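Entry for the shared binder. Reason: the reviewer on the internal report wants the predicted structure included alongside the sequence.
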Amino acid sequence: MLECVANLSVPSRDEAVLLGAFAGESLRDLHHDDDHARAVLTLIGPPVSLEADLRRMARVAAARLDLTGHVGVHPRLGALDVVPFVSLEDDLAAAVRARDAAATWFATALGVPVFLYGPLADGSVRTLPEVRRHAFTALVPDLGPGRPHPRLGASALGARGILVAWNLRLRDTTLDEARAVARSLRGPHVRALAFALRAGPQISCNLLDPLAVGPSEVYDAVSARLGEARIVDCELVGLAPRGLLERTDPARRARLGLSEAATIETRVRSAGLGPALEGPGAP
């Protein structure tokens, strides 16, 4: 079983919901943020049906989205911005095969330049930050045209392990302060950026190994730097593995934006796709 987390540059929630409808039965979660002007659609299912649903949704998105007038605080390469594949059965090779098939389709059917990240054919591993920093300069597209599509820009397609996208919103904090805290959080297990939202600064995190460093640890680090009173709330973007929930003090889960309903295993079971994934580090 595969997970695909499609990050799209989408101006409104209504547009995100429309695109989600075209993702079919594979859609397990939809998140949209107006300040980021970004939608995150989490698809989970068997490879054949998931890939068909992704292609249908992507074709509609490519027809409707236009990056030329897009505004939002989140960095972006394109309208169909970042599309990683994750094997929920600990089979990275399966995620790579799905990524490569989708990348070929994006390049040929949609006419967008595609940058790959994760394991590459030459045995190296490329990260998403490397793509963002070097696309169209030190890096040429792996597939598709050599320059950005006039409306859609470019796409980054990846194969990776599971990560958790998780944000904190702050009060009485300048953007410079938030950026300094974000820098202090970065390391092998955490990527972090600070953004200026209308409601106040946000620290946006990708937790690359959430069973090693999860929301509890990041929350405590931010609290130690700024004081807990300056943390307004926390937000999970997409879904998280149940293993993360189980390692989090139940008394803290609501404050951290975590819940049983937003676990991968719960959404898999509710979709009738079989039992939740097992194992201490599942998925």
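Summary line for the report: The chain has two domains: 2-159, 164-270.
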